[in-house]
Amino acid sequence: MAINTIIFDLGNVLVDWSPMHVFRDYFESEEKRNYFFEHICTSDWNEKQDEGRSIVEATLELIEQHPEWEQPIRDFYGRWTEMLKGPIHGTVEIFRELKASGKYRIYALTNWQAGLFDIALVRYDFLHWFDGRVVSGEEKTRKPFPEFYRRLLHRYGVNPSEALFIDDSLRNVKAAEALGIASIHFEGPEPLRQKLEEAGIL
């Protein structure tokens, strides 16, 4: 079937977000920084907040467990807006072109803590261009769990065989493909544009 629906991930597809914008030179050594992200403020820990857990609760609990890391733990969410660097302009332009074509319904499916997502909504007008969005912090589930994808499909009446999903996480791409959604692993605006042109979507 022809594609009539585009589903975008947001972080590091349309918006440049990275803890490294704060922590790249934060510690006196790369080893200490690596330890912090591998054992203290881990990806798994952050994803629990994406799934709806309070960032206050998460921060205070982690400080209790690791008091010697108190300041960097506080800075993870305390300086979160510094991690939100700005739009990825090449992808935003692709989004603009897809929307202007009038051929596609366009949705967002994002792992993002609800309160922090509000900050992005205030900053970036293009986040309001979508025909709908499903945000993990509001839904209390997240990628790569199948239920999260199905919520978007059911809520907006999307046929998976008519949809294309774009995400920078290969894990999340594979989960979408397992549900019958054609997907592109995002590796930058130009490779994305090339793949969309090859597919006759742009």
Overall 3D geometry?
Answer: elongated
**What is the CATH homologous superfamily assignment of the largest domain?**
HAD superfamily/HAD-like
Strand line-up of the largest beta sheet: 5-4-1-6-7
CATH class of the largest domain: Alpha Beta
Number of structural domains: 2
* Overall mean pLDDT: 97
Give me the strand/helix succession. Answer: EEHHHHHHEHEHEHHEHEH
Rg from alpha-carbon coordinates: 18 Å
N-to-C span: 17 Å
CATH level 3 topology of the largest domain = Rossmann fold
CATH architecture verdict of the largest domain? 3-Layer(aba) Sandwich
Number of helices: 12
Give the key terms.
Rossmann fold, two-stranded antiparallel sheet, five-stranded parallel sheet, alpha/beta
How do you describe this structure in short?
The chain has 202 residues and is α/β, with parallel strands linked by helices.
